[in-house]
Amino acid sequence: MELGTRHGMILALGAVGLLTLGLQGCAMGTESPVQTANEQASSMSEAQNDVTFPEPGDAWMEEGTYVNIENLRKMQVGLSKDQLYDLLGRPHFSEGLFGVREWNYIFQLPTSNGGYMTCQYQVQFDADMLAESMHWRESSCAALLELQESEPTRMTLSADTLFDFDSAQLSHEGQQRVADLAGRIRDDFVEPSVMVVGHTDRLGSDAYNQALSERRAATVRSALVSSGIAPMTMQSRGVGERQPVKHCDGDRGTPGLKACLQPNRRVDIEVSGEKR
């Protein structure tokens, strides 16, 4: 079930709206213009020489997490620890949450060839415990945050709107939402290529959540086909609970925790191709 108890550290990332397009940029200063990831890498190069990173083997989560790229793009100077925790989750080394001046992470970042790169990321805090600077162990990791011209348009639908609880069958409202989305895809793209990705929250077993995310993605794909999107242009997959966008404390599946985790229960539709 999605509503259950599961042992493990809580990893989560920022909020996703009911229906969103595109991705946001990232600012490295509160008063300076928004910088691209490549500009960030350049501006950090000198400071990087003075930054010491812990060894990956010392992390309590040595394999790292599949971080939400959109949340990394939101990182900026002046964020509080609570805000940072909401975006990136708990730091991956046993350095404490309160009173410490740096947090370290290990992230698996997607590359342009479809693989992933393991990257270490550090946030340093000032005396007021506000983010003062951000650093990558490898400058090439910062470049992976740069928006690519070929990056697909991403649309998100809430699974709570699409499906009844613990179900992969579209509700009446869900059918209408998917039909509306299909209309947008037909109107905005000449020959779209569509990937449907199902997500769950972290409540329940890994295996169950993976299977549920796959069934829900396949259901949405079928509904898009019924709404006029060519089946040969679409694929679907599920990633279970591995790519959360919202952090919530607690292990017990209470109604409050379930409501907090709602943004993680979603279906992402990634559309590539020439726009009209």
Automatic annotation (TrEMBL):
Task: Provide ranges: composition bias, Basic and acidic residues.
Answer: 239-252
Does the keyword Membrane belong to this entry?
A: yes
Name the Pfam families on file.
BamE, OmpA
UniProt GO cellular component terms: cell outer membrane
What keywords would UniProt list here?
Cell outer membrane, Membrane, Signal
Compartment annotation: Cell outer membrane
Where in this chain does the record put each OmpA-like domain?
Answer: 150-275
The segments labelled Disordered in the record are: 235-255
This protein's major location comes to membrane
Q: Which InterPro entries match?
A: Bact_OuterMem_StrucFunc (IPR050330), BamE-like (IPR037873), BamE_dom (IPR007450), OMP_bac (IPR006664), OmpA-like (IPR006665), OMPA-like_CS (IPR006690), OmpA-like_sf (IPR036737)
Q: What is this protein called?
A: OmpA-like domain-containing protein
Organism placement in taxonomy:
Bacteria, Pseudomonadati, Pseudomonadota, Gammaproteobacteria, Oceanospirillales
